[in-house]
Input
Amino acid sequence: MKSIAFGQYYPADSPIHRMDPRAKVILTILYIVCTFLCKNVLAFAALLLSAILLDLLSKIPLRMILRSLRPLIVILTFTSLINVFMTKGEHLLTPNWQIPFWGGHIWHIQIYEEGLWNALFMILRIVVLLIGTSILLSYTTTPIALTDALERLMKPLKLIRVPVHDIAMMTTIALRFIPTLMEETQRIMNAQKARGADFTSGGLIRRAKSLLPVLIPLLVSAFNRAYELAAAMECRCYHGGKGKTKMKILHLRFGDVLAVLLVIAFGAGIVFLNRYGFYYTMK
Amino acid sequence: MAEPFIHAENLAFTYKGSGGADDIPALNGITLDIQKGEFVAILGHNGSGKSTFAKLLNLILEPTGGTLSVAGFDLSKGDLSEDDLIALRRRVGMVFQNPDNQLVATIVEDDVAFGPENLGVPMPELRERVDEALAAVGMSEFSQREPHHLSGGQKQRVAIAGILAMKPECVVFDEATAMLDPVGRKEVLDTIRRLNREDGMTVIHITHYMNEAALADRIVVLNDGAILMQGTPDEVFSRRNELRAVGLEVPQCAELIHRLREAGIPVSGQSVSSLEGCAEQILKCFAKEGRDNG
Amino acid sequence: MDKIVLEQVSYVYGAGTPFEKKALDNVSLAIQANCITGVIGHTGSGKSTMMMLLNGLSAPTSGKVYLDGLDINASFKELLPEWLKLPEYANMRKSTAKKAIKTELAKRKKSLCFRVGLVMQYPEYQLFEETVYKDIAYGPKNMGLSAEEIKERVYEAIRFSGLDEAILQKSPFDLSGGQKRRVAIAGVIAMRPEVLVLDEPAAGLDPRGREQIFEEVCRYQKATGSTVIMVSHSMEDMAEYCRNMIVLANGKVVANGSCQEVFSNVSMLEETGLDIPQITQLTRLLQARGLALPGDIYTVDRAVAVLKDLYRTEKGND
Output
């Protein structure tokens, strides 16, 4: 089975794994804000340091996280190229670089120091953003704990008749069945390929049509699964959220509160560092 | 004799045809008692009504005729309150065929907790129940794993633990071994036998594997929605021709004894359900001949 | 004659990830033409992986798969120098020849799945058309056959399946489990593959359904003389229907030969944790208790014959 490495729970026993998922959701939001606060080298250095610290705390192999970033290389290269070539500033690095084209056209390459900085900062920001959120949420929090946390954080919405429990249950089941259905898709595709199906050639319409032999069986099977799952849930006395207890009761502990305070302090620290501009400060 | 745990009399069920289609009768006139602590195997080919029977036992389907009482609840009147229904389903657990389609959570122990959570079992009892249930099926070390990383047999054991955590008195296995490989089947079957022998759990095992049915106290054979025969595995497997006629086959040992008898070799057809029993009888027959010679 | 040869084939899943797993480990074997070969092993023994290599659905991490002596995964680069020497290409201009070879190779790769028909586990999940006829016709249609040829093949396939022709106009979703399975197998048979590969064709069916499936496969094999490879957990079924057997464990071949050869090594089979047929277990028990029986009993038919003979000789001595 092809495993989507990005966003998968990595079981380990670390302070971050043990943290209350609600605290982690809040921390993630705060951390995202922090990445956007950074404006200069000092701030970004602090940010990078914090990401490494997070990784050490979470006991997740750095190799694994870096590998999950691989699919982003294209996007990162693209955005940094745009930054390098499009940013106009004061320090021109390429005084008179020209590339002649056919027919007398000349392309003036103008790369400014600011462009390089911007590209670097942009890469750092995206990388740290992803490392931070994946460590704080996906790698260290089971999907069910996450839905649980969201259910509780959204509890106030119950007052305006949002069916919070049902949404959470549906999310849990969806998460549970994603790998199962992905495996099934692969299996059906292989079965149809064995009968000569061709999913890759032809125009858009032909390709869409060639997927029917996969989609129809998948749909039929998904409905069957839903029907059987419903029966199994009934057999296990499911009757909505009424009177339901929870095995995993969430307790906000001192450490959780401390972590939130620390990240707020970190944000304040970044704002402070931003004032001491080395070389270049982002606008 | 004490009140039977399950009492069915003339039990019938008909699938209503939708959109002008004909009604399909699935069960007609089942009369059957199952005692507390019994291990009953229900045999029958596909479409014999065995799964329909299972689904009636905890009211996934409602009987359309006859009477059915389970654990003291009368299921044939159709007037069970929601509380009674939940009480019934707590006492009569059900494990289904496809292990993938009965696990709801993404972590094993959370899945096992699903049943007792629905019943409103408070902590810390809830935790204890989950740990006990996982230990009972030998899956304690997998408590933190994700179901889709488990083998079929392991998933099915997690499903059994999810039922056990509700502390049922009876578990119905609705072809729970059909999709498993031999290893998985053995794991599940060992679990079933242990539950029955050691904890006195009433077990109803629906299957078309004859070797599995051989382990039960009693076998009930269904055909076309009616009981064709019932008895101990020895009794049932000695009626090989009748079973063949309804598309079932007997274990190889029973088949051998039957064919030897057909060939005029005087092997006793007394105990044909176990390897030991068959060997014993063949030896008796041949050793006697040998003695006569000597 | 050997139809398929595997030469030092290894297959690794998820290389370089924490989930890396060697599904096949340096497997070499040959599969005889014109008979049924059984492949047996536990879940995770590599047998399903092996099936996917036979029709080119996936390629081995290392090693070669030969069909009729030709490497099915041979690349354009590997083949080019040799093919250029072939008479049909030798006279062409080099660039034209290259192009022609490329087209020919692509055609062969595409036709591979028609030559080696693969029936996956629980194949009823691949049914999707409105009618059984259309579903069986899906494979032949992908082969680019004429409507007439397709019709002939669909009817031929349904005859092999032993199902009534009236079923062709029904929706596949209205059939029983066993019927669906037989239709799905017919859908592969309709491509008239030289090699038919079936992964657990009888899984989850009741005894009658199992028998019908095996009969369909045997009918096809006898009528067409094709090579059939059948994967199963059930030694009892394998003993009944296969001539040769391959036993896989942990991605390695642990036994390979005629059923008789493989079953004569019961202790090895027990070591791999496979279920040996009940009848073989019984024979061993009887042998241990002093009954003089040969060691090659693995079907009920054979056991009956042997015991009958034994009984007669003893009687005859009277």
